[in-house]
């Protein structure tokens, strides 16, 4: 038998030693404030949950002291695990330190409990040792419950239960004999009783957290049966625990069970001795009562509401609680939960809250929470109370503060925002009353503290609420509230949004002055935002304000590099308005920007069409519109490289469209717009035609070349007209003539190329234009004094087969001859001038031109030939003048077509004098011829033959002298 016992003891020793070795290893590690390795922690956790609680006392009898010492050390050394926040080596794999600390302390408790159970020195009947272990067990249990380690808490509480005796009536002596030992036992008994009470509380807490409400009820009954649980401290602990249980049950919807625990909490508080009531007890009573009432009022049963009133009356009857804001807030909640809302009672309750509230952060939050809740059931009462809070509490407090109190101002701002929120809610008073109330409130705030402006955050909140309310018939009044002076701290972004909202509203109601005011009151930086300027452009269109429209369009265009959306919108708005010229300006702005992705060809065409439509509008300044048209056409030509990227058919279509429209406009407007504009338009047309894909349209070549020639003709005409409009030495005028020569050259080249392809009236028409161009060329030579080109130009005129319009050519030639200096004159030039004049006289006489002009040209040609000793030609001119004069005297000619007498007299006299000169040089044959010609011409002078008689007498005398000389 002895051998068997020894063998069992030897078998048990390894388990005990393993526990000690594990504990000693953990103690060594924790003593250095290190973390338990994972493997060691797993071993400790295994001992706690499995092995150690089941070791028999006999197995550890020899090791009880070691168990006690290592248990104490582990308890103390594990403290740092529960509060360790310092960094650790990441290479070492460790477990959660707080969890390991809890497990280690439970391990230490089990070691101490095991040692206490078997120690021969630690008698289990020793109250001091029992209390010691009991306290450790309760601390471990509380730690586990605080860390939600319910399984470990159960193990710890199980150790506590080992020390709880089963009480019976026989255990209590009838008469206690007073001695020192008995007194010590009574003292220890009282201490142990307090620990037992705490044990039952922890048991109740564990049952609640484990969702074992049946066990919680059991331990509540245990607590209720103990007479020593009525002490103030224990009562507070019990009531606080029951309050937490009830509140958690209420949150999870277990209302009926929560009511039971609330009742238990209140009953527990009611057991407190009035003399031992502390501030903590009163606070707990208030919290419990308020939470209980909230639960009761959520129940629609009358009995629950009745019980809520009873709880409230108890709170109000409690000394020191009647004037608490929370109590009055509770009263409001009961009133608000009634089927029939009594707004008068609610208002009284709210005003009492406003009056009682001590201006602290927590009380202000409570008051604001109640007032916000009141707005849902009695909005008018809530508005009145909020206004009272602002007027009687916050404003005086802030005004009397010598320095700006940011806290009070923050409360004022929150109250004001709450007022606005309540006023704009659908359940509040009508909108017009709400707007008036808000305005009056803001005005009063500003009047009492003029320097006060809401912070940016409060301003944003208030303006957001007002913005949301700005709908319906009172939108304008709501929007004007957004610009109240108390909101001056609004950022530029918000001010811009408000301004734009006001502009839209005013424009929708055709209040253009209000819209302009809203725009110009905005900060300059926000005025120049694209969206703001778009609205300003729209306003300008509606109010017919060209200046504002153009300024706004320029700003929008300047900012359209990244996003041309608003520029496109301006085009659309302008096209819908009566100010279509602004649409043109907007399109031109887009053309100038050429934003990415825009269809350039469509954009240019659209702009051009719109501008050409403007040309047809009555009262338009054609010059101004034409300039805009020309700019678009020139812009289109500058984009020719981009247009070339189109398909061949599209490219040909574009060239045709632009060239034909430029040509048609040039022909149509050449007489109505300034010459410079005509030239620019025609040159643009020519530029497009120069880029026409001729290789694919050879059949159109003649038509295109004909148009180019006509463009050159019209451009020359316009440039010559421009030159004639300036002074003779003006540089701009001379540049016009130089420019005209380029087009003259082009015309002559094209005319030479196309003249063989023209027939009939078309050929005559083009020859007439060619003759006009030749005259323009002579005019350019004259004004530019390019005498070296004169002979070629004169010869070209003589080569023309045109029979008309030689009168202007004759005038030009006469002027040219007057301007020629002696160095520029030559026999060839004189001959060409004479021939031109002669031909002009011939054609004009046949065409029955003004005989006065013909007489002048004859005189000039006669003088020119006579000066250059071309007697034969001069004599022919003399006879031609006589023939013309004779024909003019025929009966079938009107009197106004008679040859001018002065011209006849001058020609006759000059011719007769020339004959005298010939006699002097003894050229009697020529002299006789010239005298006869002069007499023939004098015969047609309307002086009743006086000049003819004079010449006859002088001829007789001349003949006599000649005879005498020969004799």
TrEMBL record:
Q: Which Pfam families match?
A: SPO22
Q: Which regions span the lipid bilayer?
A: none
* UniProt keyword annotations, A-Z: Meiosis
Q: What processes in GO biological process is this protein linked to?
A: meiotic cell cycle; regulation of synaptonemal complex assembly
Keyword Cell cycle assigned to the entry: answer is: no
Name of protein? Protein ZIP4 homolog
């Amino acid at each position: 038998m002895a051998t068997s016992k020894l063998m069992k003891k030897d078998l048990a020793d390894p388990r005990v030693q393993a526990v000690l070795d594990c504990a000693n290893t953990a103690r060594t590690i924790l003593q250095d404030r290190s973390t338990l390795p994972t493997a060691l922690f797993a071993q400790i956790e295994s001992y706690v949950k499995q092995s150690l609680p089941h070791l028999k006392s006999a197995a550890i009898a020899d090791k009880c002291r070691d168990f006690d010492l290592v248990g104490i050390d582990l308890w103390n050394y594990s403290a740092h695990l529960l509060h360790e926040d310092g960094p650790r080596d990441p290479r070492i794999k460790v477990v959660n330190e707080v969890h390991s600390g809890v497990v280690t302390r439970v391990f230490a408790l089990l070691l101490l409990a095991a040692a206490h159970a078997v120690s021969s020195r630690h008698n289990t009947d020793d109250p001091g040792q029992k209390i010691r272990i009991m306290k450790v067990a309760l601390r471990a249990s509380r730690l586990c419950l605080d860390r939600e380690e319910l399984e470990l808490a159960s193990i710890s509480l199980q150790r506590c239960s080992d020390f709880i005796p089963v009480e019976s009536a026989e255990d209590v002596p009838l008469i206690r004999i007073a001695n020192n030992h008995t007194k010590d036992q009574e003292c220890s008994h009282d201490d142990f009783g307090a620990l037992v009470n705490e044990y039952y509380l922890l048991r109740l807490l564990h049952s609640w957290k484990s969702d074992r409400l049946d066990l919680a009820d059991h331990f509540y009954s245990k607590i209720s049966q103990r007479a020593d649980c009525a002490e103030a401290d224990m009562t507070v602990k019990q009531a606080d625990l029951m309050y937490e249980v009830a509140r958690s049950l209420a949150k999870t919807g277990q209302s009926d069970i929560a009511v039971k625990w609330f009742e238990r909490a209140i009953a527990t508080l009611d057991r407190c001795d009035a003399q031992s009531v502390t501030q903590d007890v009163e606070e707990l009573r208030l919290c419990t009562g308020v939470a209980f009432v909230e639960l009761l009022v959520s129940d629609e049963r009358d009995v629950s509401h009745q019980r809520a009133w009873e709880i409230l009356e108890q709170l109000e009857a409690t000394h020191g609680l009647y004037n608490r804001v929370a109590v009055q807030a509770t009263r409001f909640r009961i009133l608000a939960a009634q089927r029939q809302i009594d707004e008068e009672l609610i208002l009284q309750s709210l005003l009492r809250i406003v009056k009682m509230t001590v201006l602290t952060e927590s009380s202000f939050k409570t008051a604001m929470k109640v007032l916000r809740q009141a707005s849902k059931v009695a909005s008018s009462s809530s508005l009145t109370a909020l206004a009272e809070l602002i007027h009687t509490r916050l404003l005086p407090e802030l005004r009397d503060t010598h320095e700006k109190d940011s806290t009070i101002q923050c409360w004022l701002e929150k109250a004001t925002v709450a007022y606005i929120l309540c006023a704009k809610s659908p359940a509040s008073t009508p909108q017009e009353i709400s707007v008036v109330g808000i305005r009056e409130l803001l005005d009063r705030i500003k009047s009492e503290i003029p320097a006060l402006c809401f912070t940016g955050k409060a301003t944003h909140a208030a303006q957001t609420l007002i913005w949301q309310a700005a709908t319906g018939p009172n939108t304008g009044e709501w929007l004007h509230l957004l610009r109240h002076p108390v909101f001056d701290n609004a950022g530029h972004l918000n001010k811009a949004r408000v301004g734009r909202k006001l502009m839209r509203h005013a424009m929708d109601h055709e209040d253009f002055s209000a819209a302009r005011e809203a725009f110009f009151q905005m900060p300059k930086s926000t005025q120049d935002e694209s969206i703001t300027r778009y609205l300003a452009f729209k306003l300008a269109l509606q109010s017919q304000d060209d200046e504002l429209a153009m300024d706004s369009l320029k700003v929008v265009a300047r900012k359209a590099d990244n996003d041309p959306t608003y520029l496109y919108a301006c085009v659309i708005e302008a096209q819908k308005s009566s100010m279509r010229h602004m649409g043109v300006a907007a399109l031109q702005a887009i053309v100038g920007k050429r934003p990415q992705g825009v269809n350039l060809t469509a954009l240019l065409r659209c702009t051009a069409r719109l501008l050409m439509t403007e040309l047809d509008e009555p009262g338009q300044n054609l010059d101004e519109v034409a300039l805009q048209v020309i700019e678009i056409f020139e812009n289109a030509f500058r984009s020719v490289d981009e247009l070339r990227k189109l398909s061949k058919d599209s490219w040909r279509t574009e060239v045709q469209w632009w060239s034909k429209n430029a040509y048609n406009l040039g022909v149509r407007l050449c007489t109505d717009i300034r010459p410079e504009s005509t030239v620019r338009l025609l040159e643009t047309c020519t530029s497009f035609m120069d880029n026409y894909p001729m290789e694919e349209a050879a059949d159109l070549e003649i038509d295109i070349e004909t148009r180019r020639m006509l463009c050159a003709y019209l451009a020359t005409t316009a440039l010559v007209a421009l030159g004639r409009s300036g002074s003779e030495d003006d540089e701009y005028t001379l540049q016009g003539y130089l420019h005209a020569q380029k087009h003259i050259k082009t015309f002559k080249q094209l005319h030479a190329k196309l003249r063989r392809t023209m027939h009939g009236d078309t050929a005559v028409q083009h020859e007439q234009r060619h003759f006009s161009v030749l005259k323009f060329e002579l005019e350019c030579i004259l004004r530019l004094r390019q005498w070296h080109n004169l002979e070629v130009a004169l010869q070209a005129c003589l080569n023309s087969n045109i029979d008309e319009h030689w009168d202007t050519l004759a005038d030009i030639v006469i002027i040219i001859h007057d301007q020629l200096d002696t160095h520029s004159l030559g026999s060839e030039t004189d001959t060409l001038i004479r021939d031109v004049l002669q031909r002009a006289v011939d054609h004009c006489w046949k065409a029955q031109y003004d005989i006065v002009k013909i007489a002048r040209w004859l005189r000039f040609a006669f003088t020119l030939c006579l000066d250059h000793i071309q007697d034969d030609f001069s004599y022919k001119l003399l006879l031609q003048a006589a023939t013309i004069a004779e024909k003019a005297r025929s009966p079938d000619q009107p009197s106004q077509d008679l040859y001018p007498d002065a011209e006849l007299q001058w020609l006759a006299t000059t011719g007769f004098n020339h004959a005298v000169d010939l006699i002097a040089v003894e050229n009697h044959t020529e002299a006789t011829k010239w005298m006869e010609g002069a007499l023939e011409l004098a015969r047609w002078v309307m002086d009743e033959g006086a000049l003819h008689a004079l010449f006859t007498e002088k001829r007789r005398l001349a003949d006599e002298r000649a005879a005498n000389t020969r004799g």
